Amino acid sequence: MSSLLTRARGSASTLVFLLPMLLVFGLFSWWPIVRSVIMSVQQTNLVTDPEFVGLDNFRAVLEDPLLATAVQNTLWFALLALVFGYPVPLILAVIMSDVRRAKGLYSLLAYLPVVIPPAVAVLLWRFFYDAEPTGVFNSILGKVGLGPVPWLEDPAWAMPSLVIEATWAAAGGTVIIYLAALVSVPPEQYDAAEVDGAGVLGKVWHVTLPHLRGIMLITLILQIIGTAQVFLEPYLFTDGGPNNSTLTVLLLVYRYAFQNTTGGDYGKATALSLMLAVALALLSLVYFRLTRRWSE
After folding, report:
1. I want to staple 151 with a disulfide (CB 3.0 to 4.6 A). Which of 38, 106, 161, 279 is the partner?
2. In angstroms, rounded to a whole number, what is the distance separating the alpha carbons of residues 259 and 58?
């Protein structure tokens, strides 16, 4: 009996200590989600009284011709970031792991773009992306007989330009993660691979990549989720232009919510946000189920 009372008191005291954290977590994490679900079935601009409209907001979003453009552009951004941006941190980490001198300096230089405020980085790159022949990047290309390139002014070049900047800005954090994981690779396995006649690429393929397999799976899904929610680069670089060639799903959400000074259609904005959240949740679930055996 005494042991039961002791356990009950311990549980009560634990609950008392956890209660403030649970309240804060519920207020700032779960209540916005609940509020979003409520707003998605309302016609509201946060000024007039909300009106219940059921699934009309979801229907209006699905019938919006810009939705297909936003989804296509978001997928295009994610694909470009996956093809060009995903291997870059891994390659840099593998190269830096073999550096014997000034490794800390190289790690600092790789992580430096992460420290720069995103808005400042975008404004800096907009200056670099000047489409005139005297622009920074075009001047460099001109010295080797290339360009000028209409970086942000041409629909074909705008999205790749955004991907280049986004890769530069985000690669440093992933490089540090890979460098930390590479420390756990036993050096004797590299020696054994070298004895077996493996070259640099052979050691990377047969030793390095198998040890990084779990980390690579996590960084891959995080990159997919992050690129599906891209907003800052399209908003600050091009505002979705030219000709909506960089309009993404989150930028469309922003337009729904803030399309005029008196308040936008927050019902449609939250409806599209919930649709994106559900799509990403289902994608994550399928991804982890498909990669569970390979990750082990």
Report:
1. 161
2. 18
With beta carbons less than 8 A apart as the criterion, state whether 273 and 33 touch: no
Residues contacting 3, CB < 8 A, separation 6+: none
The answer to whether the CB of 70 falls within 8 A of the CB of 248 is yes
- pLDDT band, very low/low/confident/very high, at 266 (cuts 50, 70, 90): confident
Residue 76: count other Cβ atoms within 10 Å of its Cβ.
16
Stretch 97-108: mean pLDDT: 78
List, in order, residues 6 or more apart from 70 with CB less than 8 Å away: 247, 248, 249, 251, 252
* 26 and 103 housed in the same domain: no
Q: For residue 260, what are its two tokens?
A: 């005029």
* Beta strands 51-52; 42-43: pairing state: antiparallel
For residue 112, count other CB atoms closer than 10 A to its CB.
Answer: 10
Quick: pLDDT tens for 160-210: 999 999 999 988 888 888 888 888 888 788 778 777 777 777 878 888 888
Domain for residue 46, yes or no? no
Task: For residue 2, name the pLDDT band (cuts at 50, 70, 90).
Answer: low
- Would 193 be classed as within a structural domain? yes
User: Does 45 fall in a domain?
Assistant: no
Specify the number of domains making up the chain. Answer: 2
Tokens describing residue 271: 């409806």
Q: Tally helices (H) and strands (E) across the chain.
A: 16, 2
Which is higher by pLDDT, 214 or 75? Answer: 75
Domain that includes residue 177, residue range: 56-295
Amino acid at 90: L
Query: Could you tell me if 154 and 189 lie in one domain?
Result: yes
